[in-house]
Amino acid sequence: MENLKYFNEYGGFSEDGKEYIIKMTKDIKPPVAWTHVLANPNFGTVITNNNSGYTWYKNSRLSRITKWSNDVVIDIPSEIIYVKDKNYNKEWSLCPKLNQDDEEYYITYGFGYAKLSTMQMGLLQEHTTFVPKDDNIKVNILRLKNVTGEKRELKLVYYINPVLGEDEIKTNGYIDLNYDKNSNIIYAKNLLTQDIKEQNIYISSSENIKSYTGNRKNFIGNSTLKEPLGIWKDSLENETSLGSTPCIAIEVNVELKAFEDKEIVFVLGADIKAAQSIAYKYTIPGKSKEELENTKRYWNELLRKVRGKNSHRVYEYNVKWMAWLPNNSK
């Protein structure tokens, strides 16, 4: 952190200016959510320094995939990865705001990606998120490194609070889940407007889905998002969201040998016609990392066209970038 440029108590730019890095602890954190937008022309997500945010498809207001928290102070997360260590019977999440512990969290915003890094219970955790430039999918690459000399058995839960439309109040009780075991994919459809393809989504993982639930009340129980009841259950109920307050939570199990390093991928996508091929592509960790590098390269090449020289800004407008803007903004 000492080498950051323009450090302002919370963070600063890397030496090459391509990343902004924030350090957070329980006592030192930005007073409001700092956001980073990752998007292509049809699909996007907002990431905050709390590893929170929301996701949309085609229209960020009318076609929200997950819930948007319109509160920059509270910043309630709608997409969370939980970790439970079975050896020590401890659980936490990759959302610093929920944990409120004594660990240090480093949030990195780069061109086309965001990354959270922390150490907890002898596990190095790096959660990298990106949206590819061509596919309608959000990719979460979770790197776990066991820095202890003992085997670790972990339970991971990927949780989202789905909207599948403009307002979760309108879609509450109308979201149906379907688990395709052969493809390792959970499909979610808004039956209230089932003719609208934009309101069908899917989630998957590089690990086999052991169990799932679509019932938020059963998952959270009489607790809160900080420590939901579902993380302590031996297995989730494999139930749909129809007629209930919805969520989508999938459970996978991971075993790490002493000093082993492993990458797990969780994906959240739209356009279910291409779900199987796209999910298969991005749930291969090596392929996801390759696409991450392609995404970084694309944004680096695009954004470096804007440069400053001798105190005068010189702009080289990129035709592709301008094509994304609405007609009345060109």
Please provide a written account of the structure:
The structure is a single chain. The chain has 330 residues and is mainly β. Residues 310-330 have low confidence and may be disordered. The radius of gyration is 20 Å and the shape is globular. It has helices at 96-99, 168-171, 216-220, 275-282, 285-303, 319-323; strands at residues 11-13, 19-24, 35-39, 43-48, 53-57, 64-66, 79-85, 90-93, 105-110, 113-120, 123-130, 137-146, 152-160, 162-165, 175-180, 185-190, 200-205, 211-215, 246-256, 261-270, 306-309, 312-315. The protein is built from 6 helices and 22 strands. The strands form 5 sheets. A 10-stranded antiparallel β-sheet has the order 1-2-9-10-11-12-20-17-16-15, with helices on one face. A hairpin with a 2-residue loop joins strand 21 and strand 22.
Give a quick set of tags describing it.
globular, 14% helix, disordered C terminus, 330 residues, mainly beta
Provide a quick synopsis of the model.
This protein is mainly beta. The chain is built from 6 helices and 22 strands.
